[in-house]
Amino acid sequence: MSEEPANNSFGILKSLKKLIFEDSPEPFVPESKQAVTPAPIKTGEVVTNNPQTNLTQNTSDLPPADVKQMKLKVLEILERINAPGLDFFEVWNAAAEMGSVDAGSIKAAFTSLKYVDKTLDKDKLVRTGENYAAELQKVIDKETSQKQLQKENIEQNQVAEKASLTAEIQRLEQNMEELRERLSSRQKELKEINNKYEPQLKDIDAKIAVGKTAVAEVITDIKNALNIIQTNIN
Q1: Cα–Cα distance measured from residue 189 to residue 174, given in angstroms and rounded to the nearest whole number
Q2: What is the 3-state secondary structure (H, E, C) of the chain?
Q3: How far is 130 from 54, CA to CA, in rounded Å?
Q4: 137-182 pLDDT, tens digit each
Q5: What is the distance between the alpha carbons of residues 81 and 90, in angstroms, rounded to a whole number?
Q6: pTM exceeds 0.85 for this model
């Protein structure tokens, strides 16, 4: 499959893109590769405004805005892989130009385009439609594989960082336990510090007092002796 010319890129599926954002206030001007006037829908056929989603997985659990934006990217990929000529791609888009993609619009688009390309038949529609779906699946499979590798790398980083943080927390907790033990020991020492030094201090005070008393008594004895000398020796 080859890419479309630059002037047609990202514009061929405007009808289908319009259905994705059907509430958009912007004016809608349909575009297609071939100048085709779709056949009118038969009276009694039901027309809905629901966008076609049969080529995508169930996304009911995802944010609607995100899904819509991603569907636009998927449609752009489909434009790039669009094969030349008329096939499922053009019938699908022509049906969207009628306002919806349902049994009535698909049949009308097929009837109109069949007059432009006589080779267009049911088998070709089914074959090319399945080919487009398969090509898109290859794209998403490759993208998913790449994202899975990216996810695995992130998970490995997560596990490594978690292990590192866990080990560091354990070291910090061990350090904290050691600090708590040291703190408790120091607090106990602080409470007992008076008992440790008071006896020594009291002993010194007692020795000082004894020394002073002894010296004072000796000095008194000396003075008494001097008085005796002064009064009794000529």
Answers
A1: 23
A2: CCCCCCCCCCCCCHHHHHHHCCCCCCCCCCCCCCCCCCCCCCCCCCCCCCCCCCCCCCCCCCCHHHHHHHHHHHHHHHHHCCCCCCCHHHHHHHHHHCCCCCHHHHHHHHHHHHCCCCCCCHHHHHHHHHHHHHHHHHHHHHHHHHHHHHHHHHHHHHHHHHHHHHHHHHHHHHHHHHHHHHHHHHHHHHHHHHHHHHHHHHHHHHHHHHHHHHHHHHHHHHHHHHHHHHHHCC
A3: 12
A4: 999 999 999 999 999 999 999 999 999 999 999 999 999 999 999 9
A5: 13
A6: no
Find how far residue 195's CA is from the centre of its chain: 62
- Of 61-65, 84-88, 124-128, 213-217, the one with minimum mean pLDDT is 61-65
Here the tokens at position 111 are 């009837």
